[in-house]
Model the fold of this input.
Amino acid sequence: MPIPKNFVYYLWWRTTASGIAQKGSIRVEGTDIHYRYYGNGSPVLLLHGGLSHRLSWFSQVSWLVESGRKVILIDSRGHGDSGLGDNALSYRLLAADAVHILDQLDIQQTDVIGWSDGANTALFLARYWPQRVGKVVAISGNFDPSGIKPEAQEDNNIRSSGLSYWLKRWWTGAGEQFLELEDKIKHLWQNGPKLEADDLRGITTPIMVIIGEHDLIKLTHAHDMAALLPQGQLEIIQDGGHTTLMTHAPQINQLISKFLTIPNINGTKQP
Done:
């Protein structure tokens, strides 16, 4: 598969003044959670999916910064530079980690864009910390394990050898703790999130639900989510799967731009 042009642009952008990140970490619940941020202006928090890390946002970070937003990226527990800790993973724990980072950066309220597990975490932020959230873009998320297609729940753990193992180690940034992380993430997917219909009805935050036509999340589940949210709206990416923020970045970025009222700068600007 050819390297996407927007990834090449992202790598180039990271070497420029606007692409130099401020970095930090905070000790939470027995481990260090790392974050970085770019730019100034109104904040937007990006929450990546399980078994990936902050690099998954390569199609969004640069144009968001160039449009005048302060972009905050968190490596969730066990991913990237963050420690895994001894606690079982839960979406409420991941949301609480994000709140601690916002406190550290003295950010009282932020828009949130979450993908997959990051979208689920964003729902928990909107449910339990509504005063900290402006608008939410929830890409390929679910509010209950029943929303995941059966094939995505199959126990196909990667063992400690082979190309897939080394690629996953790299993509998650987890290094030697990858297998432990994978076990905890699989348990998280099988047991959560568990938000009830009344939980979603109680979320007054404006939320745009985005799902791929061929996503790992059931289309009926996404419809239900958007319908239950008082200020929910649904967008379906035609021919998209679970990784539309990378494979269908122009469409995703246009939707983000319109919903958050952000100048798009074409979404995938090239040098």
